[in-house]
Structure formats: structure tokens, C-alpha cells
Design goal:
With 108 residues, this protein is an all-alpha fold. It contains three helices and no strands.
Amino acid sequence: METLKIAAGELARILPNPGAGPAQGAGPAGAAAPAQLPFQELLKQAVTGANDMAQKSDALTKALVEGKPVDLHRVMLAQQEAQIGFEIVLQMRDKLISAYQEISRMPM
């Protein structure tokens, strides 16, 4: 199986930072930590982001096929972004299933 390598900037575009907010160390001492995003919302955002990238890729591919003035490089990059987003969602699904199976095998 091929290993997927993604730059941190690309991953940030696909999966938003759940703890986005003020930088750590900023503000008065004892300030509350940034709010954490529930896993369900993180998963939903990942799926939505991958879907948005796939729709953008489809639109650019359709425009290219129709003969509209679209840069081929933009089309290829959009296709690669959509593929990477889809692979990330698949890997998240696989890890979730693996974790569920591991928990179900634990003795009670």
C-alpha cells in the first residue's frame, strides 16, 4: 500500500484546525484554553471539504472539456486536491472502524 504524504499547509486546507483561536501564550495568565471541536464535527468538516474539492474539480474538468478557457494546471491541481481529500476521509473512516473493532474485542 502506498503511503500518502501531505504537506502541513495542504492538510490545514482540508481539515480546519479544531483549536483555532488566540495563539497559546497570548492573553493573561490563566486564560481559558481554545474550545475543542467534537470529533463528529471534525469528521463532518472533512467530508464536506472533500466534497467541495470534488465538486470544484468536476466543474473545472467540465469547463475544460467544453472548450472554455481554463488553465490545464488548475484542472490537474484541483483533481489532485480532490483525490487527496477523498483519501484522507477514507483513512479517517478506516481508523474509526479499526478503533471500533479494537474496542469491541476488549473484555468487559
